[in-house]
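Side project, low priority. Logging it here so it doesn't get lost.
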Amino acid sequence: NMLCSNTSLEILSLADNRIGDVGARALSKALQSNSHLQALDISSNGINASGAQGLAEMLCSNASLEGVNLFGNQVGDVGARAIAQALRSNRCVKRLSLGGNEIGDDGAMEISRMLLSNTSLEQLDLSTNSFIDNGVRDLADALCFNSMLKSLCLAGNDIGITSVKSLVEMLHSNTSLEFLELGCNEIGDGGVRALGEVLRINTCLKVIGLSDNGIGDEGVKELSEVLRLNSTIKELGLANNNIGDDNIRYIADALRFNSTLEGLQLSCNQISNVGARVLAQGLRFNTSLTRLHLECNIDMDEDVGTMIGGLLERNEIEKKLTESWAVIDPAGSKAFCPVFLSKAGEMCDIRAMYGLLQKRPDLFEGFVSRIIP
């Protein structure tokens, strides 16, 4: 009743309740006339195909909703078909989560058909469903022609080498996808080798998740070559794979040449002090990485963590400086100024850089010449 008359509410979260199909249909009826709500979260609410069909009817007429989260329900193929058909004509929804909804290949086919005509959807979460090769192939085929979708999550779908090859073909032609999450699948070294072929030349993807995929020596070698050549990937997820002291050196060597990667997830592997020190050596020559996750590896000494933390902090400071204009010290000092002027015109304190420089001058080798010739 409130939604029928309210003109100010923009976000509504009813996640982790028990609204079921009856509640979903009641909400859908109200939202047919509501023109202000922009985001609806009804994840984990026991919604089945009937409730999804009610939501689909609402999406055919609602002109304000931009985000719909249905994660963790049970809409299945029938519910996915109803929502997909509604989104063929809907021009408002930009974010849709259908993860964890027991959707199989039939539902994936309907979603693929929707992607061929939809011109608004930018983020799509299909994680933890029941796709096999045909479903992923249909999605990949559709994305060869879709130029709007920027983010796709397919984590937890038992994706293997056959599905990866379909995604590789898509990545050769797609020009919009920037985020691809493939964690918790069965990609393995063979799948990574196939992906590496296209990632060497792809200039769109900025974030790729490959955690928990059984990636070992050959896969790590392939990804290291990708990092040497790719100039657009900013985030790479490799947690919970088979990465240890022996193969981490490949990534460390690649970091010497890579200047775009900003975040690297390596938690829950088998890296010890030895591997961490190898990583630190690679980081000495790297200027872009500012986030490195090494949690839940083999116990590391505090001094190794401090060393890596210092190198990451150095890169963060350099990043801020290179994006800013230095302010000349009125006293005429030729050393670093205690403040700098950002492009937005804000005065920013960088005393933190002085402290790090005084404590660990070795981390700043070549730093001055790169920033102030």
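Brief comment: DSSP finds 14 helices and 14 strands in the chain.
Revisit when time allows.
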